[in-house]
Amino acid sequence: MVLLVGDSSFNLVRSDSHALRDFWKFGFMDLFDAYAKFPSTECLRGAGIVTIKSGDGILYVHQGEMVTVRYGTDATPTDTGGRIDPSLPRYVGTSEMTSCHAVLITSPTGYALGHLDGGGRGRLTEEFFGTVTEFFDSISSSNETLDVHVIGGFLDNKGFSKNLSLQILTELLVSKRMFKLRTLCSYLLNDCITMKSGDQLHVPAIRAVVFDTHVGALFPASIQPEARGPLSVLRSSYVYSTSARSRMHNILDPISHCLILRPFVIEEDTMEALKCVEHCSHEQLQNFSTTPKQETDHFYEMLKRTSLLLTTLRKEKIDIFAGGNLEFIFDEITKQWCPVNPRAEEATENPLTCFK
């Protein structure tokens, strides 16, 4: 179909291998140039930062996770184009992005958000857009133009960010849906330079974002670790699972708005590597990241907590998913995700599953 960028339009056909190669070689930067020409296009880097603390109410998406959300029939439209849905938190967001990207797609009837890492040589990115397209086809007219926001990455020396931006933009160009590129703050447009140990270091300007559903706008964010639940440590371990190689973890029922964590398995070799984390030096811990110099302290703290959780569960022979899924519903009064089945309640009571 067509990707609208300012007053320009771009499109590709997946079966046209010659055109795809040309885009990867030349057209990719043309799209960035087209976006940069329009100052009226939303500028995320100049927006105010929204701080999210525990209890503020957020649908948080970890690396390897995604959500698709349809607003309920009792959702109230706002003057700014947002929606107030009592069954959902005001904010949806993600953080800890270095070479990873957040992709937000919105319409008057719902939204989708994914924290993509480029895994599977583009298969997971393609799978994400396939799921999103199917979702919006089910809740809106196929002729409706969807707004899309792409955030994350920087000028990393191994090209991870460039490759992921390329994957995402390619999927937008070959999609059967029409998209309007509202925000492009990825790769070189999200790069900034800082000084570290006397040397210049490229880092991402924006690492976290939230979409304010009441306002209908995207903002850079600071999301405290305690606000990244439920079960933030358990969920962060999904990226080490066998499932993470083939699909993203779609954690929300788009209609009932029940947050569902499905069972996943971590291979023995990966477990052995994670078991060593508690004995690793900081330099050794950097091997767990593709962009170690740009990671936050929280990344390494979460890595240690993930290792402790998984090794403890293995040692004590606890199957946290015994019997099936872990399910939660958002409580509008407490602004917390509350367990709705015994398995989820038991998991919440385990102090190692959460960041407190």
TrEMBL record:
GO cellular component terms attached to this protein's record: nucleus
GO biological process, one term: ubiquitin-dependent protein catabolic process
Cleaved signal peptide residues: none
Keyword terms of this UniProt record: Hydrolase
Any one Gene Ontology molecular-function term assigned to this protein's record: protein-N-terminal asparagine amidohydrolase activity
Database matches in PANTHER family: N-TERMINAL ASPARAGINE AMIDOHYDROLASE, PROTEIN N-TERMINAL ASPARAGINE AMIDOHYDROLASE
Protein name according to UniProt: Protein N terminal asparagine amidohydrolase
Species classification: Eukaryota, Metazoa, Spiralia, Lophotrochozoa, Platyhelminthes
